[in-house]
Amino acid sequence: MKKKLIATVMAATMAVTALTGCGSSSSSSAKKDIKVPTEPFGDTVKYDPSVEINDGKDVSIDLWEWGSDELFQEIIDRYTAIHPNVTINLVDNPWEDYWTKLPLALDGENGPALFNVHNSYHENLINYMAPLDIPVEDLEQDFNGVNAHVIDGKVYYIDYGMMTGSVYYNKEMWKEAGLTDDDIPKTWDEMIEVAKKLTIKDGDKIVQAGLNFNNDFHQNYLLGLNYQLGENLFQEDGKTPNVNSDAMKKVMQMLVDMYDKDQIGSKDFGENCADSFGQGQSAMVIQWGHYYNTLKTTWSDIDFGVFEIPTFDGNPYAYNRYNGESTFGVNKKAPKDQQAVAQDFVKFFLCDDESQVDFNLAMSTFPAKKSLADNEEILKNPSLKVLSEHIDHYIWPGPMPSCVEEDMKKAGEDIFYNGVDIDTALDKAQADIIKDMKSSSFQSVENLYEFAK
Q1: In which residue ranges of the chain is pLDDT below 70?
Q2: Long-range pairs for 171-175 at CB < 8 Å and ≥24 separation?
Q3: pLDDT exceeding 90 applies to what percent of the chain?
Q4: Considering its fold, how many domains does the chain have in total?
Q5: 154 and 182, same domain (yes or no)
Q6: What pLDDT is recorded for position 23?
Q7: What is the CATH number of the domain that holds 60?
Q8: pLDDT at position 35, please?
Q9: Which domain holds residue 69?
Q10: 183 and 273 co-located in one domain
Q11: pTM of the entire structure?
């Protein structure tokens, strides 16, 4: 992390009150030591703390988010320590309400100037957003994946972190099976052999699954392993799905064989793989980064390790897909003085390494900021460390409509539970996704992958 000339000041954490009925707000009366920078900081994009906001006159804005009050409050406190004339009211909304209330608020005249974004709701929000007041080429110098967010030469939000799937394994079960670190599999064939050693049966009944993918095979296998075989999720036009491809059929057949032929798990054992692992029933699962924090909090008694997802031949086109955790959105209908604060806050967030590290660790995402790729704090998190070597070989398909996951889950369930053959199930998923996406403006960005063919 770059050295900064800083002055330490005592700053009171401001008390926040919700100005609307849209949610509760976070408040704190504890005092903290806040390091206030006195010189510009950042990489290509730089933040100058000496520049006054709103000519030093008082200004107040709302920041809407869901469920991470303390994390957001800390960055607010650091920002307002630099700009004491700025008040940022943190308004927390439950996730299930957020995506209904936010578009309605932004459509009116009193919506929040600043709001948390999730790219799965891109189509619901993008028309309400102002482009970031930062040159695109500067963002591209500092952050990975910026080009996938460029719309008509402008960027409205980018990723601050990248999340994907890795293998979580139970260390106690691993040791009891006689396995060591040298047995960490690199290929799917090796993975299956390891899983066989981890599987325990009582007669024909599984009492410990070597690998469990029940309930989320669509997220962690079907919508990602196709890349290992060199095929995208969408065809060349970027709109037509490609889910009945040869690669997808191979992945689906591998999953069927894992249960039916290799018997390293069962569709009838551990109906939710994440819960089954946490409850000590399954030895390995593939989960995305957020699972690391779930294990640490919900199933803290599980001694687990993490390794990178295996590949078919050790030399994949890409390892898997990823999804980004998004930066804030700026409300284009907010008053100009509020928009100026919101734009400045986003720049501060992007330049402030402490905030970047805090947010990525909280979300278990690998930093999109290039200068933090070898950050010591980041690499202490094993779910992030395993990604560090090949993070540039993961693909973001773009903000896919939710129907893609839903229809692929239905296809897998038909295969596993309803006796539908693979070709028929995937052909139906292909047709269903085309139908469900008929009115969508989605355009795949797979062609922007650094190693695209």
Answers
A1: 1-32
A2: 171/303, 171/304, 171/305, 172/303, 173/198, 173/208, 173/283, 174/198, 174/283, 174/305
A3: 91
A4: 2
A5: no
A6: 37
A7: 3.40.190.10
A8: 87
A9: 6-162+324-388
A10: yes
A11: 0.89
